[in-house]
Amino acid sequence: MTGADRSGEIAAFLAGTPFESSEHVYPAVARRWPDGSRDELAPGFSLARQHIYAGDEDELERFRRLDQLEEAQGV
Hints:
Blueprint: H1 7-15, E1 19-20, E2 25-26, H2 47-52, H3 57-72
Antiparallel strand pairs: 1-2
């Protein structure tokens, strides 16, 4: 899937509305970082990680645990 193919998903994310990709349905959930950016669609793992590891549940679980640890440490 190219960036142009994903423009609808990106627009929906920025608007804070749910959207579907070819593989997943994402909830309208986003974590705001101190700099004001929003990069998380589902609790526990980032948008980039969610797409990169969409087919690898072990990797997703590993990154969920890392994100939880970072959050607990205030990183």
